[in-house]
Write a structure and sequence with these properties.
13 helices; binds manganese (II) ion; globular; Aminopeptidase; 4-stranded antiparallel β-sheet; binds (2S)-amino(hydroxy)ethanoic acid; Alpha-Beta Plaits; single chain; alpha/beta
Length: 397
């Protein structure tokens, strides 16, 4: 487990931001895909890629009713070492443990690696699982582009993959009998419960909205304040409005972690500013209420500065409640581990609407995630591997 994580610890290190930057089909993520394929092949698993750039490593012949585990290998910009890779590495280690126990699956068993879960390059979270389930239009997906203007289609072709086949994949979906994703907890729930491992009960409703402000580019020194239409002002108002709006709704979160002035010169009044809102709450009504308040603040602030604003919903997922029967069955199989909610989205959250799905969480001592400080103790990671092996054996008995 620790050795496997150590093997990839040098891949996609981001010296500028700290942590790791590994994004859909970029050099670092492709290196991790190759590493995973080699590790799975070495274990006698048959590795295949599906039409959406997801990888599937099969123990036994691919077939219906499969027990599938896995997660993602991509990260947020400057992310931690565990978010995603812990689920993939734990799956490989769980196969080793099951083999050491002399276990032979009574059903097809697979490890899945989903593409671009963080949306760090093309902006849509869980892109691979959304494509698999038909939750995003393939033409829309093909046109998604990164900050250099490289489209998803071009990035896939550069990686030797064919984007023509993107789209809902009923055959791959139909093979999944149960999907269980192991993930480092992104919060302190297990710390407070004093447990190394837990099962997921729900995922917050959450979405991403792009705010595009248009003003008038001009000279920072030669332009009087009264003559300005500076889009950075309404953008600043929106950052503050997001915190205010979320603060008024119990348990809601609103974040603006990405803001891009154009052209971005120190002595230049921006002509346009784009920012992205990540908003989440317990249900659809509360999430959309928070967003509506922020949009209203953006429109007022833009008008006051003689600017315009356009708001685009880029992705959205309603609250996910994991199948309680499966959740409790797995918790029971593990001797009664706690069930806890999460504010973080996952591929399991996308699949939960299509196949029986569950998640296992591994304790994160600080709760910090999406940052280089993200961590899980080796003993807790080992407990996660044992729990995953027990769950896979239980489901594939
Ligand atoms: O944004 C999320 O919650 C997930 O980590 N993609
Ligand atoms: Mn994440
Ligand atoms: Mn993740």
């Amino acid at each position: 487990m620790t050795e496997l994580l150590a093997e990839i610890a040098c891949v996609g290190v981001d010296a500028r931001r700290g942590g790791f930057s590994r994004h859909g089909f970029d050099h670092a993520e492709l290196e991790l895909r190759e590493w995973f394929t080699a590790e799975a092949t070495r274990r006698g698993l048959g590795v295949e890629g599906d039409r959406n750039g997801n990888l599937w490593a099969w123990w036994g012949e691919p077939g219906a009713g499969a027990v599938v585990t896995g997660s993602h290998l991509d990260s947020v910009p400057g992310g931690g070492a565990f978010d995603g890779p812990l689920g993939v590495v734990s799956a490989l280690a769980a196969v080793d443990l099951l083999r050491a126990r002399g276990f032979t699956p009574g059903k097809p068993l697979a490890i899945a690696v989903f593409a671009e879960e963080e949306g760090g390059r093309f902006g849509i979270a869980c892109l691979g699982s959304r494509l698999l389930t038909g939750a995003i239009d393939p033409d829309t997906a093909r046109r998604l582009s990164d900050s250099d203007g490289v489209s998803l289609a071009e990035a896939m072709r550069a990686a030797g993959l064919d984007p023509a086949g993107l789209g809902r994949d009923p055959d791959s979906l139909a093979r999944i009998g149960t999907f269980v994703e192991l993930h480092v907890e992104q919060g302190r729930g297990l710390v407070e419960l004093g447990a190394p491992v837990g099962v997921a009960s729900s995922i917050l409703a959450h979405g991403r909205w792009r705010f595009s402000f248009v003003g008038e580019g001009n000279h920072a020194g030669a332009t009087l304040l009264v003559d300005r239409r500076d889009p950075m002002l309404p953008a600043a108002q929106v950052v503050l409005a997001a915190r205010r709006a979320a603060g008024r709704v119990e348990g809601a979160r609103a974040t603006i972690g990405r803001i891009t002035p154009n052209p971005g010169g120190t002595n230049v009044i921006a002509s346009t500013v784009d920012l992205w809102l990540d908003a989440r709450a317990a249900d659809d009504v509360r999430t959309r209420a928070v967003v509506a308040e922020i949009v209203a603040a953006a429109e007022t602030a833009a008008a006051e500065e003689g600017c315009t604003v356009a708001v685009t919903e880029e992705s959205y997922g309603d609250t996910v409640v994991f199948d309680p029967t499966l959740r409790d069955d797995l918790a029971g199989a593990l001797g009664g581990v706690p069930a806890l909610p999460t504010g973080a989205g996952h591929d399991a959250g996308i699949l939960a609407g299509h196949v029986p799905t569950a998640m296992l969480f591994v304790r994160n001592p600080t709760g910090v995630s999406h940052a280089p400080a993200e961590f899980a103790e080796p003993a807790d990671c080992a407990a996660g591997v044992v729990a995953l092996a027990d769950v896979l054996a239980h489901l594939a008995r």
